[in-house]
Design brief:
The chain is α/β, with parallel strands linked by helices and 666 residues long. The protein has seven helices and 43 strands. The longest helix is centred in the last third of the chain and has 29 residues, at 599-627.
């Protein structure tokens, strides 16, 4: 067997060397399979077709038409639409109407900040999620349009004209700006390869990435080729930002990856190159600059105008593994995401697993559930509500659904699969105090089971705790007047990057005005001191302070009070949180009663009394024992003499008869 392997390697080596130093035919570009560890993302304002105009009759109305044209292989697609108002727009806010349709089933999530938006869409192929406070939806049953231009014609007849039209491909996110004049023409006539940069920018994950499989599963060097193919409109000076990020899903990324980065474009383009690996060689047309160096613009070189020529150029550098080859029509920013782990530097899955096929039931269900995300975390429970309308795109429908614990079964109520469980049940794990993890196990009509892991975060929550000692160990609900009290303000959040600011805290005694303690992160009096915060445990952000409650009336008019604090989390969309804590106000008596006898005094008195009793008993016994023998010292004769006996009897008799005599004399 070893001889066969050696012979095969020898033949491969001899064929490679006999052909030429550059064996371009040996690199057959193939579509990049999922799991091969490369993604190419870019931002662009160019759409396949589009137009703008000022043809809407109503001056306070904007009508924007979007047609989402997905590839057939996409299955269920998801699009985030971020709508914002033009900066510096001081005019009266206009009514904005979006008319949206698609050629495939898609989930559209709208993000906006208090803009009056109306959406007209076909509920047959679009599921709309309005993540906004001021929006309206109109589920108009639009006709089945064969393309974007038919949708444009319908909108023109409906509103008398439109402000813009864009036929977009498969973006993940669209940034749309409203509230400004974007067109001067009387009619919106679509143009191919239209530049919608006045009002629209898209974030796209390229589906055209290709690669050349490598015979080695651990090649030490690899090349990435990006060909930016602008149209004639972009032939003038232009700058594009490019970043390459090396990551690892499990473990540390392989930072020492050796890469050749080929950037092909018009000669007038400037590449602003940001993050890359430490061992990166550049082959760039036009000029480029490196952000981590202050050398200014660097002149590039002329690169071939064909993919074969570009591959040959890479082979000249001694690299035969083309990890990715991507042609991009137009872009403002490009990001290469490469998954390479330190333990297995550049292992490439050249043969994808059967279950990873994009059209397999497991892949379709996993993609659908990760788009819809039917799970959510509450304070003490997990809730799963999967609408059946999402499932109609599946060829193999879902018949049952459970969590990791098979006893936790979802209920089928005809429109939804619904499941609710406590965090402590159903094999649910809570990590870092906030991340809740479990699995959805769905059973298909073919009896195949598909497992989809999921995670949701507990809702952000602010809590207050009062302590009587600086160790912050035993929480209390009692506030002592004129004594130091310690307060801990804790925010449960998964956001570990944004800073937490303690905005204000106050104490509101019952029936009295509020006493400010902290305002704008600053103490309001010398009796309040902000303390150093401890190390934040995972999932928790903490602030601490101490104060002394003082009142003009000595605090006797209030037996309770409410401690209120408000914090803000400074992130892209700042968030504010408020919490309160009811406390009992305890006042010490200024004239306390005299202190009672201590336990030592009581024991001493008891022992003294006992000792006195013992001594007294001993004295009485001593007296008794020394006085009683005097009577025993006079002996009594058993037979006294007769004379003495008669004399004695006589005396006794005379003595006893005296009362009688006296009585008779009387």
């Amino acid at each position: 067997m070893e001889k066969v392997r050696c012979l095969a390697l020898l033949l491969a080596f001899s064929s490679a060397t006999s052909a030429s130093p550059v064996n371009v035919q040996g690199c057959a570009l193939q579509p990049l399979e999922q799991g091969q560890g490369v993604r190419v993302l870019y931002s662009t304002s160019r759409v396949p077709s589009g137009c703008v105009s000022r043809a809407v009759p109503e001056t306070d109305l904007e009508v924007h038409v979007l047609y989402l044209q997905y590839g057939i292989e996409n299955g269920v697609s998801q699009l985030h639409l971020n709508v914002s108002s033009a900066e510096g727009n001081s005019t009266q806010p206009r009514k904005v109407v979006f008319v949206v349709s698609a050629n495939a089933f898609s989930l559209l999530t709208v993000h906006s900040e208090d803009l009056p938006l109306t959406f007209i869409y076909n509920s047959g192929n679009i599921l709309l999620n309005m993540n906004m406070n001021n929006g309206d939806t109109n589920k108009t049953e639009l006709p089945s349009f064969a393309g974007g231009e038919e949708l444009l014609t319908w909108a023109k007849l409906k509103y008398g004209g439109v402000s813009s039209f864009a036929n977009v491909g498969s973006p993940q996110r669209i940034h749309f700006q409203v509230g400004k004049e974007i067109g001067a023409s009387e009619d919106c006539i679509p143009e191919t390869d239209f530049n919608a940069g006045q009002y629209l920018e898209m974030d796209v994950v390229s589906s055209e990435v290709k690669s050349c499989p490598h015979p080695s599963r651990k090649p030490r060097k690899e090349a990435h080729i990006v060909w930016l193919q602008q149209g004639h409109q972009d032939s003038g000076p232009q700058a594009v930002e490019l970043n390459m990020n090396v990551t690892c899903d499990k473990g540390d990324p392989f930072k020492e990856l050796s890469v050749v980065l080929v950037l092909k474009s018009q000669p007038s383009l400037l590449w602003n190159i940001g993050s890359t690996t430490h061992s990166t060689q550049f082959l760039v047309s036009g000029k480029y600059s490196l952000k981590h160096m202050s050398s200014g613009k660097i002149d590039g070189e002329a690169l071939p105008d064909s993919k074969e020529g570009l591959i040959r150029k890479v082979n000249d550098r001694g690299i035969n593994f083309i990890a990715s080859y991507t042609e991009i029509p137009s872009a403002n920013r490009i990001t290469l995401e490469v998954v390479r782990c330190a333990e297995q530097p550049t292992e490439v899955a050249t043969t994808p697993q059967a279950s990873s096929h994009p059209h397999s039931p497991a892949r379709e269900i996993e993609g659908l559930l990760n788009i819809v995300m039917p799970w959510r975390c509450l304070e003490n429970t997990i809730e799963v509500a999967l609408a059946k309308q999402y499932l109609r795109v599946l060829k193999d429908p879902i018949t049952a659904m459970t969590l990791r614990d098979p006893h936790c079964v979802a209920q089928d109520n005809r429109t939804h699969f619904v499941l609710r469980s406590l965090l402590k049940d159903c094999s649910t794990r809570v990590e870092r105090g906030i991340h809740v993890k479990n699995e959805l196990i769905v059973t298909l009509s073919s009896l195949q089971q598909v497992t989809v892991p999921f995670q949701c975060d507990l809702p952000e929550k602010l809590s207050l705790q009062l302590y009587s000692t600086p160790e912050f160990r035993l929480p209390s609900t009692t506030l002592e007047f004129n004594e130091v009290a310690y307060v801990q303000v804790s925010l449960r959040t998964a956001d570990e990057e944004s800073s937490l600011q303690l905005q204000e805290c106050s104490l509101k005694p019952t029936g009295k005005t509020s006493v400010p303690l902290i305002r704008n992160s600053t103490s309001t009096s010398p009796s309040v001191e902000i303390l150093d915060a401890p190390y934040n445990s995972p999932g928790t952000r903490i602030h601490r302070f101490r104060f002394i409650y003082e009142a003009n009336d000595g605090g006797r008019s209030s037996s309770s009070a409410t401690l209120v604090c408000r914090v803000s989390l400074n992130r892209h969309n700042p968030s504010s949180f408020e919490s309160s804590l009811e406390v009992e106000v305890k006042v010490k008596d200024p004239n306390p009663p005299p202190p009672g006898l201590g336990i030592g005094t009581v024991v001493g008195i008891t022992f003294g009394a006992f000792l006195i009793g013992v001594l007294l008993t001993a004295a009485l016994w001593y007296i008794y024992s020394h006085t009683r023998p005097l009577a025993k010292m006079q002996p009594v004769s058993a037979n006294p003499p007769a004379s003495e006996s008669s004399s004695t009897n006589h005396s006794i008799g005379s003595t006893q008869s005296t009362p009688c005599s006296t009585s008779s004399m009387a």
